[in-house]
């Protein structure tokens, strides 16, 4: 069936009206990070930028998935990390959302992992992430572990081993790179049982986000929506699936996350084509998901739409093609319009600029010698009591390529306090002489938002 040719009777206007009745407010504070999966970008991370152009919103969280075939592609997937490093470091505030395998298919077990057998491999991964300047990555460790298609499936009596494996890997990566700022997302599927939810949880000390993946696939007989079923006919089927499958799951995860004091995440979600038990151009699903994600009461830290035509389901809303152009035609036009309308039509509430300020960074000596250490100094003032991340970067002034960086995490400020920072940097002799610059960046403590960015300190390296 050609879903793209079918007309869905529920209009965008009526969907927006319904969301208004539900109390959805797009201008809520502490807005979740918006991410996207656009396929494995390899050497073409520009597809994420093209998605931002389509959305009308700067997407700062790009998602990648590790291969599950070899240990080499888990410990040091240089082909992948290099591409993501290029994208992340091209603009301040960007981060990688990285799905990390626990072991390759057929080459390991949760029991061995739980004993620490693979610790050294994940220390290597941590070192490589930092080597590629991918600090602050959100790591979806053993993602979708409640699915029996994953090598690290937590069912069949493996719940305790999964939890122990998760703890071992987190501990190993933190030990290897204690200042890297990695965040770990514990991420089953939405339909995990409450008992398994508790049995596989590794403990609050090892988890930064509690995530769930949720695609619009229905199993109660309402999907696929038959040809000719439009308007209220389609809506009743969409609501049936939502009420039977998704609403109880969202409530379950919200309660669980609140009990553990953790933010939620939705690392993968998307509409689904009819051929794979999906609801098709389902504006009701998109509206309900956005209402949940952007409701501050649910404390969602980030979400990432799966904007991709996968072999096991079509989900793409954007017009972005494989060349980073805009020639793709979605089969879900109404859902796409509703999703995009949030970002295009509703401005986000800006962070108060008066809350934090910095002095212009200084470089000593003013002309530096490559291969020789020099000092960068600056100060930060916060008008309110809060915790901040202070970061200094050295970049090539012409190409903006990142040369070096230093982050000061968990910097506690009292109201009106000024804190001074002096950092030693060295420009390698392998880099050309010329003009470089110092960038000063201030982030919220969880790196979720850039509060201040300035790049007004050029200097010469000889």
Automatic annotation (TrEMBL):
UniProt superkingdom: Bacteria
Active site (record annotation): 144, 268
PROSITE patterns for this protein: GH26 (PS51764)
Statement: the UniProt record of this protein carries the keyword Signal: yes
Keywords carried by this UniProt record: Glycosidase, Hydrolase, Signal
GH26 domain residues: 3-341
Descriptive protein name: Secreted protein
Biological source species: Cystobacter fuscus (strain ATCC 25194 / DSM 2262 / NBRC 100088 / M29)
């Amino acid at each position: 069936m050609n879903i793209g040719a079918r007309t869905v009777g529920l209009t965008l206007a009526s969907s927006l009206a319904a969301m208004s009745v539900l109390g959805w407010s797009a201008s809520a504070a502490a807005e979740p990070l918006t991410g996207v999966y656009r396929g494995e970008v390899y050497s073409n991370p520009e597809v994420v930028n093209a998605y931002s152009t389509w959305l009308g919103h700067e997407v700062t969280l790009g998602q990648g998935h590790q291969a599950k075939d070899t240990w080499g592609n888990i410990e040091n997937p240089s082909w992948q990390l290099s591409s993501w490093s290029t994208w992340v470091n091209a603009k301040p505030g960007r981060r990688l959302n990285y799905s990390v395998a626990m072991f390759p298919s057929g080459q390991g077990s949760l029991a061995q992992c739980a004993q620490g057998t693979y610790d050294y491999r994940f220390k290597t991964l941590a070192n490589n992430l930092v080597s590629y300047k991918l600090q602050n990555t959100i790591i979806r460790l053993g993602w979708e572990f409640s699915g029996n298609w994953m090598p690290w499936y937590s069912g069949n009596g493996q719940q305790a081993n999964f939890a122990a494996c998760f703890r071992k890997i987190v501990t190993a990566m933190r030990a290897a790179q204690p200042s890297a700022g990695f965040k770990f997302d514990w991420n089953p599927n939405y339909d995990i049982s409450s008992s398994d939810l508790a049995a596989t949880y590794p403990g609050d000390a090892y988890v930064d986000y509690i995530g769930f993946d949720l695609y619009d696939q229905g199993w109660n007989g309402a999907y696929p929506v038959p040809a000719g079923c439009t308007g209220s006919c389609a809506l009743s089927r969409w609501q049936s699936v939502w009420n039977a499958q998704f609403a109880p799951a969202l409530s379950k995860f919200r309660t669980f996350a609140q009990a553990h004091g953790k933010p939620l995440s939705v690392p993968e979600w998307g509409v689904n084509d009819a051929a794979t038990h999906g609801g098709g151009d389902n504006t009701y699903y998109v509206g309900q998901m956005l209402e949940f994600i952007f409701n501050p009461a649910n404390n969602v830290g980030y979400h990432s739409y799966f904007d991709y035509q996968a072999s096991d389901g079509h989900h793409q809303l954007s017009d972005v093609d494989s060349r980073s152009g805009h020639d793709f035609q979605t089969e879900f036009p109404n859902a796409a319009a509703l999703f995009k309308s949030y970002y295009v039509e509703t401005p986000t509430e800006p962070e108060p600029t008066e809350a934090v300020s910095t002095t212009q960074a200084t470089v000593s000596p003013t002309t530096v010698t490559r291969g020789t250490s020099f000092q960068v100094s600056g100060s930060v003032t916060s008008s309110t009591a809060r915790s901040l991340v202070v970061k200094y970067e050295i970049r090539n002034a012409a190409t903006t390529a990142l040369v070096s960086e230093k982050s000061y995490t968990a910097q506690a400020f009292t109201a009106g306090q000024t804190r001074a920072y002096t950092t030693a940097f060295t420009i390698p002799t392998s880099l050309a002489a010329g003009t470089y610059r110092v960038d000063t960046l201030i982030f919220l403590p969880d790196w979720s938002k850039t509060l201040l960015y300035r790049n007004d300190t050029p200097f010469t390296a000889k």
